[in-house]
């Protein structure tokens, strides 16, 4: 008796079913389209996966009374390119972008030409980027993350923290890929490398992404072992995460392309499936040098823990590959067996009505907290349409609904001081989005304490601050406990407690990106200096050095190199980045089970 129907029968059966399904869907879509054209209705399903408008771009319709569009188009958001201030702002933005791209190219170069030559010619291995390219369906689908991690560290620059990483598609399935770059310090693991691995695993867990580890590591950098080994959020946490993700049915796949020594040996042996490559792959707790030192025996890496041993005797590996090419082919086949649905193609959506490239001229050289959030929203949303929520209340925060590449989103944008009423409004809106399963997009540009300009009279200050603290606590709680995806773009300042309320790293957003002009810190550098000078006398030279240090430590490059965000993006690419993040996050949304608290 046959366990399964024959291939020919199965194929014939599937073809008939597909034809029937196509005919049914075609009839349904035809009727639906006529219904939409006649009734001007929209898809109002609560599922984020299906939150896609069923409309085609049409003529410009801006009046509130028209029913041919879901939301009104934003008005009064035109930017005059001919103004001197626009040109000045644009030059400043281009300068910052150029500086970042120079550092990015340095990071992407890995360990340099000599290390690359040794890796490819002497060790006869593929480079990390070539390996990732062979695993993925299409190199263009690779959404690279944490690109300048490790640059300018106290112990020297570690390009990309020694790990090439990002999200790409394998058989249409979004997967998180981590590839050790052995050209960087021989693939040694530094403290920043561990931090990067943990952040990537957090992304995988939060978005339920299968993990593919392309392992080629030299083990921990022992002079810094105290910052790598003992604590909770250090090296051992990587293995804890592998075990817990596997227990939650998030696949873990390891491809052994180099040595997995000491603790690194647990990465493949704890994975769901393992591929190991002949000659170059090896797994052992102690390598040949340690064996010689302890026992006086000379043994090769292949004999001690090579592909043949682990594939035929220990069982630590599930698949034996003669070459790297074969290993990547096997890896792709493993992903095909995961029984996961491929990503759905996003429907065609209208681009922003206003040119996104104008965002470069919107960023002021000074006082960047004064950026108009409506002008940003108009240049990242479908056809620049936005349904504002509580427009007249708590105006220090802009909240409302829009579409980004057909994904329905709730947008929360800074617009000056985050007052008590603004925080109350933000709390209400966050809970509203959670109730409706609508992802949140934060456009963060907080005001500094001295720039808000809304300090009340001295007699009312304590009452004002008490009210503000309560409202801030409510919004912080709602953002922290939000059950929908959160995507944060730092467009300007990220100062003080407002940073947390606006989707900062601490409240667990799915992704955080920043523009090159972003500043991240407890306070503005000038405010910190003012506070310090109250307790410490500073001469002019000391103050100048301290200001330079504070400004450097609050820069976007400093923040990104230390993994305070997931990368720096160009302002004109903001829409594309958010769209990709939304497509990635749609796999994991939990229904809100709590009542809506309006105030």
Question: In words, what does this structure look like?
Answer:
This protein is of the alpha/beta class and 599 residues long. The chain is 39% helix and 14% strand. The protein is built from 19 helices and 19 strands. Strands 1-2-3-5-7-9-11 form a 7-stranded mixed beta sheet, sandwiched between helices. A hairpin with a 2-residue loop joins β13 and β14. α5 packs parallel to α6, α13 packs parallel to α14 and α16 packs across α17. 44% of the residues are buried. Pathway: Amino-acid degradation; L-leucine degradation; (S)-3-hydroxy-3-methylglutaryl-CoA from 3-isovaleryl-CoA: step 2/3. It catalyses: 3-methylbut-2-enoyl-CoA + hydrogencarbonate + ATP = 3-methyl-(2E)-glutaconyl-CoA + ADP + phosphate + H(+). It comes from Octopus vulgaris. GO terms for molecular function: methylcrotonoyl-CoA carboxylase activity. This is methylcrotonoyl-CoA carboxylase.
Give the termini distance in whole angstroms: 66 Å
> What overall geometry do the principal axes of the alpha carbons give?
globular
> How many individual β-strands?
19
Strand content: 5-15%
Q: What structural class should be given to the helix and strand makeup?
A: alpha/beta
The overall average pLDDT, rounded, is: 86
Low-confidence stretches: 1-65
Main beta sheet: 7 strands, mixed
Organism: Octopus vulgaris
Domain CoA carboxyltransferase C-terminal: 352-599
Pfam families: Carboxyl_trans
Enzyme class: ligase
């Amino acid at each position: 008796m046959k366990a399964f129907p024959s291939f020919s029968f199965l194929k014939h059966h599937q073809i008939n079913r597909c034809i029937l399904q196509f005919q049914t869907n075609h009839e349904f879509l035809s009727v639906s389209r006529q219904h939409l054209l006649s009734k001007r209705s929209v898809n109002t399903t609560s599922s984020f996966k299906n939150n896609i408008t069923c409309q085609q771009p049409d003529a410009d319709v801006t009046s509130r009374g028209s029913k041919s569009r879901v939301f009104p188009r934003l008005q009064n958001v035109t930017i005059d390119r001919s103004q001197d201030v626009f040109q000045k702002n644009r030059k400043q933005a281009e300068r910052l972008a150029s500086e970042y791209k120079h550092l990015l190219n340095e990071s992407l170069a890995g360990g340099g030409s000599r290390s690359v030559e040794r890796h490819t010619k002497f060790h006869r291995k593929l480079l990390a980027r070539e390996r990732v390219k062979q695993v993925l369906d299409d190199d263009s689908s690779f959404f690279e993350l944490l690109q300048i991690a490790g640059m300018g560290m106290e112990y020297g620059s570690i390009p990309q923290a020694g790990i090439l990483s990002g999200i790409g598609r394998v058989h249409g399935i979004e997967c998180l890929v981590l590839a050790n770059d052995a050209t960087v310090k021989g693939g040694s693991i530094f403290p920043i490398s561990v931090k990067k691995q943990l952040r990537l695993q957090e992304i995988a867990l939060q978005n339920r992404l299968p993990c593919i580890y392309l392992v080629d590591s030299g083990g921990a950098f022992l002079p810094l072992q105290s910052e790598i080994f003992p604590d909770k959020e250090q090296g051992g946490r990587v293995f804890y995460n592998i075990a817990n993700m596997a227990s939650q049915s998030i696949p873990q796949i390891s491809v052994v392309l180099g040595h997995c020594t000491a603790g690194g040996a647990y990465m493949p042996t704890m994975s769901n499936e393992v591929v190991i490559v002949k000659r170059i792959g090896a797994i052992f707790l102690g390598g040949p040098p340690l064996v010689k030192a302890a026992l006086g025996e000379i043994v090769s890496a292949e004999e001690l823990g090579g592909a043949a041993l682990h594939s035929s005797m220990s069982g630590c590996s599930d698949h034996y590959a003669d070459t790297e090419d074969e290993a990547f082919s096997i890896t792709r086949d493993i992903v095909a067996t995961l029984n996961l649905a491929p990503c759905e193609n996003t429907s065609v959506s209208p681009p922003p009505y206003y040119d996104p490239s104008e965002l470069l001229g919107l960023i002021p050289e000074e006082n960047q907290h004064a950026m108009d959030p409506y002008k940003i929203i108009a240049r990242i949303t479908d056809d620049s349409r936005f349904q504002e929520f509580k427009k007249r209340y708590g105006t220090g925060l802009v909240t409302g609904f829009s579409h980004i590449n057909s994904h329905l989103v709730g947008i929360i944008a800074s617009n000056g001081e985050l007052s008590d009423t603004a925080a109350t409004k933000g709390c209400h809106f966050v809970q509203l989005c959670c109730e409706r399963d609508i992802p949140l997009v934060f456009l963060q540009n907080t005001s500094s304490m001295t720039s808000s300009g809304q300090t009340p009279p001295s007699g009312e200050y304590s009452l004002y601050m008490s009210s503000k603290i309560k409202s801030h606590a409510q919004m912080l709680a709602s953002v922290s406990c939000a059950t929908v995806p959160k995507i944060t773009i730092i467009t300007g300042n990220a100062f003080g407690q407002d940073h947390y309320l606006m989707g900062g790293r601490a409240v667990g957003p799915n992704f955080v990106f920043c523009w090159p002009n972003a500043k991240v810190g407890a306070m503005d550098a000038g405010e910190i200096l003012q506070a310090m000078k109250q307790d410490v006398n500073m001469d002019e030279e000391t103050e100048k050095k301290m200001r330079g240090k504070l400004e450097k430590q609050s820069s976007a490059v400093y923040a990104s190199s230390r993994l305070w965000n997931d990368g720096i993006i160009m302002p004109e690419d903001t829409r594309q980045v958010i769209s990709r993040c939304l497509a990635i996050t749609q796999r994991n949304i939990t229904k809100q089970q709590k009542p809506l608290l309006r105030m």
